[in-house]
Amino acid sequence: MKPLATGAVAPIALVGNPNCGKSALFNLLTGSRQKVANYAGVTVERKQGWARLGNGQRVQVLDLPGTYSLQPRTADEQVTVEVIEGRRSGEAVPGLIVAVVDATNLRMGLRLVLELQQRGHPLVVALNMMDEARARGLHIDVQKLAARLGCAVVPTVAVERHGHADLLARLEQQLAQPLPEPLPRGAVVLASPSVLLAQVRSILAEVAPATLALKRFQPGLDRWVMHPVWGLAILAAVLFVVFQAVFAWSEWPKELIEGAVGALGQGLAAHMAEGPLRSLLVDGVVAGCGAVLVFLPQILILFFFILVLEESGYLPRAAFLLDNLMGRVGLSGRAFIPLLSSFACAIPGIMAARTISNWRDRLATIMVAPLMTCSARLPVYALLIGAFIPERQIGPLSLRGLTLFGLYAAGVLSAMAVAWVLKRVWHKSGYQPLMLELPPYRMPQPRNILIGLKERAVIFLRRVGTIIFTLTVVLWFLSSWPVPPEGATAEQAIRLSLAGRLGEALQPLVAPIGFNWQIAISLIPGMAAREVAVSALGTVYALSAAKDSAADQLMPVLAQSWSAATAYALLAWFVFAPQCLSTLAVVRRETNAWRYVFIMLAYLFALAYAAAFVTYRVALWLGG
Ligand SMILES: Nc1nc2c(ncn2[C@@H]2O[C@H](COP(=O)(O)OP(=O)(O)OP(=O)(O)O)[C@@H](O)[C@H]2O)c(=O)[nH]1
Ligand SMILES: [Mg+2]
Question: Entry's Pfam families (predicted)?
Fold first, then answer.
């Protein structure tokens, strides 16, 4: 517990049940862009920001993972309890807690409020989701509630622009008064859960009697969505539409970017004197970064669907549907959302596994998360599909969309298989039933979707501008030195370069799985960021942005120089490997052990090699 410097104001912490709107409120108060989505367990870390009060004073605000009680059962709840009790090293105890309560679910919310009060935390209650409560005809006597609780209660609507105005005013008032001294240790007398519940009932009977009779579960749409047969059919259809759209909608924006990259390369080539600098810019930077950039539309389309699904409230329902299936292979139904987040990137997926209380379940989820197809793999898939899968319709379906769906499915199925093996190895038994609250369906807000897409675009562009840029420059250097002799062809020049020699040295290793030396080179930078495999192929095939955008040229070049068997083997390789380094770092942090990092690395490489080998041999045998 760190004492505060004189004059400094202790931070305000937002505490409440999962999915009650803490992060939405936090974003309003601080102008941040924390992730808001319609399911429990979105926030798994402590986040901080600054709010400016009406009098100009700045106070620190903390957004915390949701929790139902102050007895933590999961790693994310643990974070919340540690922060509010000031048990994190180097952090002050929050001076004031804003207890966020979902007005449509007072029962669970008030229970937590009473628990906080018992422990002597100074409180302001934010009664959030008042718009939904009103729409459902729920009347809550706010004044009476404040009187019963003995603290301020402020209605808020965290999805409206000024939905936090009253709360801000109230915070200003509250912070102007001296804060009460925290209760001395030992002075806390905790009531039993049943006593707490009785208190909540008695408060509800007085301030909102209608809630006592309110049912949380609304049939209707859910009769179809949660149906054991229809529900699965709907889920399959939803996923299928997503993959079709990734190809069908991306054509023209892709051409637009290709055109721009091509024009930039040609412009540079025309205005610069021949020499290493021109080659670096045109063949290295523009060709390399451009080759990755063209996949932006496809990534955004994928994210558009993920964001809509997250906001609608569909995800926890899908988790329930699949709970049985996942339980059979040894994953908890709770693993569904972390695994789905891994479609974006394994890192948030692995962190979201904090919401799983059982350590073995959590570890199994972490271990298989990298098998879910992260968005960095999309460019590699899209490139190879574009080069090797003909544009053909099978009924209403495109063959390319179908292939992409198949690759994603291969990732999911192998994750299930690995989880099943882990279950055997660990002799795991004891199925734990899934307890998850179903949020109401919500219309996704266009504003939130746009913000989410912008965020994604920025992350992707930042990757292109930093790691992909750097690797491209390094690779350009390695493939241009030593300077080839006069009259050498482009292919000879690369073969003689450092990169070429490295590729040849590695080739015996990858020859059994059908890879040539060019592929061997591209796999190395692909380990730091998978997308770079695409630009690296551009570099080793000596494509220059001086003629046309490199991505455009790459597909025909690959189609010509590789056998289909090689291409399929490379696709199979990328379903499993290589692990990107930042994922491994997060695995180390979340499991606190190097052991799991090495196990993960080894099993993924082994699977990748085996899968590529089998694919290559089978494709050759079939005459690929
Ligand atoms: N209608 C309405 N929706 C809201 C309100 N506040 C939040 N939401 C929605 O409720 C959902 C959950 O909001 P979040 O801010 O992510 O909730 P959270 O409490 O941070 O959730 P966790 O991080 O999972 O604990 C999102 O879909 C929000 O758009 C509100 O006042 N009214
Ligand atoms: Mg949150």
Answer: FeoB_C, FeoB_N, Gate
Q: Which domain holds residue 539?
A: 233-434+444-621
Residues 309 and 367 placed together within one structural domain of the fold: yes
Ligand 1 center to 40 CA (angstroms): 9
The reply to whether the predicted model has a pTM over 0.80 is: yes
Task: Specify whether 183 is located in the same domain as 237.
Answer: no
CATH number at residue 54: 3.40.50.300
Ligand 1 atom having least distance to the Cα of 311:
27
Q: Is residue 218 part of a domain?
A: no
Quick one: 476 and 534 in the same domain?
A: yes
Q: Confirm whether 222 is domain-assigned.
A: no
Q: What is the pLDDT of residue 617?
A: 95
7 in any annotated domain? no
528: pLDDT strictly greater than 80: no
* pLDDT (0 to 100) of residue 551: 62
Confidence of residue 624 (pLDDT cuts 50, 70, 90): low
Q: Which two tokens stand for residue 258?
A: 């290709």
Residue 262 has pLDDT above 50, yes or no: yes
Contact predicate 369/342, CB 8 Å: yes
| Ligand 1 centre distance from Cα of residue 92 (Å) | 27
Mean pLDDT of the chain: 87
